[in-house]
């Protein structure tokens, strides 16, 4: 009887221990299930939407599809695979993703940035456009004979001294346009100054781009940016054609929420047009359009606007005033190249503008190099000095307390003034310049830094 009692107690103890063990295992499994996210297999990694490259998006989408087509696999394994894909893609692009709040700095509508949509590639345009830019000969045949001729052969050989992170892209690619908007927003710029030719017209190396304006406007609006127009020197540009084209732009695009209007000191909201190479047209012709008494006057009509002329030489300031323009900008990113682009002249130009009720809009740039298309023009190269040249230009601009600062440029790659992301690249024929030792987004970060500095200083000016 004693042995039977001992055995019974042993069996009861064993059952209790076994039951507790089973309950323990069940508890662990339930806890693990609770910790697993519902979308763990296919959740969006933080910041993934900030990746600008089409190639990155394609790789990621293909990888997601492959994962979806697999048999019901282990969830944790799928998360690990997706994370590896994202990490490897980011490493391959050499473009670390910034935090969302840093990437989307608030836009500064007093920072205007020149933007070009004249690039094309075979995938979207059937051929390369502008990346295959010809080498331009010097006007003196004796000098021209000392330099190579021909044109560039993309994608390895492009008409630029730097190489874009997005490669030899097409401006028709909506993913490229969106990536550009993200970068400009990250830089805390606010107004895109879009290079523009009338419908059916283009520069001598490009093709018409007016049909791209709606895409630019839509993506600009998505990122809370505004768009104004940089009227290029199209054929037969005069007072009559300008009236027609300004009317066309305002009628077609003026109702878009991204269309830029500037608030004047009198409280009026007016469109703004930058007019490149305005000095090639005599003041009398401009006065027909831009003065109240002009024969083609646009003043006090539904198409009135602020017209900003390009100042190159000192004498142009008097012509600009006589023409009826509302202000002047300097465009060139080469300190010392022209009177207008020389930083030490900005104070006197600002004083002239103030005394004549004109806007002065200095143009700052990160550097200049165009020897990929003008191999004889090395004397106008301005080294970036790892960002110091750009910061010096901003500092000079802030000294004159301008209402607006313009930036040359977001993506004028031919002249090496771009702040768009660039990456190191070496081919058998070409070693491209890059932003090292900094990251590809260094000039976006510097622009954002000075945008904030400008905001703070402007508050003090207005006190």
UniProtKB/TrEMBL annotation:
Its main location: Golgi. Its EC number is 3.2.1.130. Gene3D superfamilies: Glycosidases. It is an enzyme of class 3 (hydrolase). One of its GO terms (cellular component) is Golgi membrane. It catalyses: N-{alpha-Glc-(1->3)-alpha-Man-(1->2)-alpha-Man-(1->2)-alpha-Man-(1->3)-[alpha-Man-(1->2)-alpha-Man-(1->3)-[alpha-Man-(1->2)-alpha-Man-(1->6)]-alpha-Man-(1->6)]-beta-Man-(1->4)-beta-GlcNAc-(1->4)-beta-GlcNAc}-L-asparaginyl-[protein] + H2O = alpha-D-glucosyl-(1->3)-D-mannopyranose + N(4)-{alpha-D-Man-(1->2)-alpha-D-Man-(1->3)-[alpha-D-Man-(1->2)-alpha-D-Man-(1->3)-[alpha-D-Man-(1->2)-alpha-D-Man-(1->6)]-alpha-D-Man-(1->6)]-beta-D-Man-(1->4)-beta-D-GlaNAc-(1->4)-beta-D-GlcNAc}-L-asparaginyl-[protein] (N-glucan mannose isomer 8A1,2,3B1,2). Keywords: Golgi apparatus, Hydrolase, Membrane, Signal-anchor, Transmembrane, Transmembrane helix. Pfam families: Glyco_hydro_99. It is a single-pass type II membrane protein. It comes from the Eukaryota. It is found in: Golgi apparatus membrane. CDD domains: GH99. InterPro entries: Glyco_Hydrolase_99. One of its GO terms (molecular function) is glycoprotein endo-alpha-1,2-mannosidase activity. Belongs to the glycosyl hydrolase 99 family. This is Glycoprotein endo-alpha-1,2-mannosidase. The gene is Manea.
């Amino acid at each position: 009887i004693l042995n039977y009692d001992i055995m019974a107690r042993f069996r009861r103890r064993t059952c209790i221990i076994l039951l507790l063990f089973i309950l323990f295992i069940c508890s662990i499994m339930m806890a693990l299930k609770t910790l697993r996210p519902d979308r763990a297999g296919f959740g969006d990694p933080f910041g993934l939407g900030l990746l600008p490259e089409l190639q990155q998006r394609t790789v990621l989408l293909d990888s997601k599809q492959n994962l979806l087509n697999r048999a019901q696999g282990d969830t944790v394994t799928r998360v690990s695979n997706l994370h590896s894909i994202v990490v490897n893609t980011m490493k391959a692009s050499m473009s670390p993703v910034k935090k969302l709040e840093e990437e989307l700095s608030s836009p500064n509508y007093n920072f205007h940035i020149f933007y070009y949509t004249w690039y094309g590639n075979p995938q979207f345009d059937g051929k390369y456009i502008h990346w295959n830019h010809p080498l331009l000969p010097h006007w003196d045949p004796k000098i021209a004979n000392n330099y190579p001729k021909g044109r560039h052969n993309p994608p390895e050989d492009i008409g630029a001294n730097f190489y874009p992170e997005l490669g030899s892209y097409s401006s028709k690619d909506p993913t490229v346009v969106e990536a550009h908007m993200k970068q400009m927003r990250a830089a805390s710029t606010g107004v895109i100054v879009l290079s523009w030719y009338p419908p059916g017209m283009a520069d001598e190396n490009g093709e018409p781009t007016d049909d791209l304006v709606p895409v630019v406007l839509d993506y600009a609006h998505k990122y809370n940016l505004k768009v104004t127009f940089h009227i290029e020197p199209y054929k037969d540009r005069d007072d009559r054609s300008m009236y027609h084209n300004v009317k066309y732009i305002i009628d077609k695009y003026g109702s878009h929420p991204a269309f830029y209007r500037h608030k004047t000191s009198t409280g009026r909201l007016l469109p703004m047009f930058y007019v490149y190479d305005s000095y090639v047209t005599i003041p009398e012709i401009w006065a027909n359009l831009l003065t109240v008494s002009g024969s083609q006057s646009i003043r006090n009509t539904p198409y009135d606007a602020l017209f900003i002329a390009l100042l190159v030489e000192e004498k142009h300031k008097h012509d600009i005033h006589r023409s009826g323009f509302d202000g002047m900008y300097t465009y060139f990113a080469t300190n010392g190249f022209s009177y207008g682009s020389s930083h030490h002249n900005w104070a006197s130009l600002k004083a002239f503008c103030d005394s004549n009720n004109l806007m002065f809009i200095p143009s700052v740039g990160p550097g200049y190099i165009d020897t990929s298309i003008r191999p004889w023009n090395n004397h106008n190269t301005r080294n970036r000095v790892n960002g110091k040249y750009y910061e010096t230009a901003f500092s000079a601009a802030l000294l004159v307390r301008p209402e607006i600062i313009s930036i040359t440029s977001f993506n004028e790659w031919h002249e090496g003034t771009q702040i768009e992301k660039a990456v190191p690249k070496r081919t058998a024929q070409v070693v491209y310049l890059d932003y090292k030792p900094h990251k590809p987004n260094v000039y976006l970060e510097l622009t954002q830094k000075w945008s904030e500095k400008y905001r703070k200083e402007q508050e003090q000016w207005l006190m």
